[in-house]
């Protein structure tokens, strides 16, 4: 493990130095891409999407007042954040210097810095997603409670189950009014939540790619794999004994370490990432209105055993 760690660190630094030269030689092009992306993707396109949703998209008639409130509120938040980011463009040469210096410390350092910059640049998307997800989840809870009211049942918190319950006429009347309002507002809430949930899902895919790259560069058993190919006997796995009946001799053979053992730690790490970013899990969380979070960096790196 000691030699493999040295190999991984050296290769990380070599790739980082090469990436630093790439950043230095293409500094002008990258700065232009950042500026265009800030103006286009992070601001204008999302504002255009919100305006499109506010104008009955594809014949879908949303609640006019609530849709106007959503679109104007989110557009104001996006505009303010885009204005703040534009004011930070004068520090772009300093950011280039920071990125180039971080690349000298290794490709993993540059990748981690990119993920941090991505989170900072898309903070307004995350804020809009949090607001829409909280409203969506509360409307789901409200509709579920009103559905229990119509069935004559009530959720028992102490026993964690739904029990029958007798409601008064005024309670049923109020529940009917609230259910009508919730059903009328739910399509508008769901549409805006779905838009920002898809944006969040796209960012989660970028985070998953970056974290997978970090795991690959930090845990890949490069030295052990090269030693397994070049000189397998230097990686002993198990011994096998065979006896020859003719000469009454016991022959002991050393078998090299199998690839499944070499990649065991890497396999466990892949399972953790796959379990967290599984499509069915993410889809279920979106339908439930739960907040999609990235994989915690502290739990990515599992210790050697």
TrEMBL record:
One GO term of the biological process aspect: GPI anchor biosynthetic process
The record lists the organism as: Pisolithus microcarpus 441
User: Does the record carry Manganese as a key word?
Assistant: no
Q: Does the keyword Transmembrane helix apply?
A: yes
Q: Which GO terms describe its cellular component?
A: endoplasmic reticulum; membrane
Residues folding into a coiled coil are none
| InterPro entries in the cross-refs | PigQ/GPI1
Q: Sorted alphabetically, which keywords does the UniProt record give?
A: Membrane, Transmembrane, Transmembrane helix
Entry protein name = Unplaced genomic scaffold scaffold_28, whole genome shotgun sequence
Where are the membrane-spanning stretches? 6-23, 95-118, 124-150, 171-192, 204-227
């Amino acid at each position: 493990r000691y030699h493999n760690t040295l190999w991984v660190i050296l290769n990380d630094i070599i790739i980082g130095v090469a990436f630093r030269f790439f950043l230095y030689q293409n500094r002008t092009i990258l700065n232009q891409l950042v500026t265009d992306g800030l103006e286009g993707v992070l601001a204008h396109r999302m504002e255009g999407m919100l305006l499109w949703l506010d104008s009955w998209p594809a014949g879908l008639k949303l609640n006019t007042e609530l849709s106007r409130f959503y679109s104007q509120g989110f557009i104001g938040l996006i505009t303010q954040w885009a204005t703040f980011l534009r004011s930070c463009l004068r520090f772009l040469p300093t950011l280039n210097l920071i990125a180039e210096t971080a690349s000298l410390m290794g490709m993993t350092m540059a990748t981690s810095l990119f993920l941090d910059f991505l989170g900072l640049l898309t903070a307004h998307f995350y804020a809009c997603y949090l607001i829409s997800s909280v409203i969506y989840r509360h409307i789901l809870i409200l509709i579920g409670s009103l559905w229990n009211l119509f069935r004559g049942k009530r959720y028992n918190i102490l026993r964690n189950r739904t029990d029958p319950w007798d409601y008064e006429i005024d309670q049923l009347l109020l529940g009917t009014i609230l259910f009508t309002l919730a059903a009328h507002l739910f399509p508008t809430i769901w549409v805006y939540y779905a838009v920002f949930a898809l944006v969040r899902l796209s960012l989660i895919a970028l985070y998953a790619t970056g974290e997978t790259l970090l795991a690959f560069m930090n845990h890949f058993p490069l030295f052990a794999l090269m030693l397994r190919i070049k000189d397998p006997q230097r990686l002993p796995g198990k011994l096998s004994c065979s006896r020859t009946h003719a000469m009454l001799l016991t022959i002991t053979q050393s078998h090299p370490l199998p690839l499944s053992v070499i990649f065991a730690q890497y396999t466990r790490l892949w399972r953790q990432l796959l379990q967290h970013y599984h499509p069915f899990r993410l889809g279920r969380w979106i339908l439930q209105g739960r907040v999609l979070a990235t994989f915690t960096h502290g739990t990515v790196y599992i210790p050697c055993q």
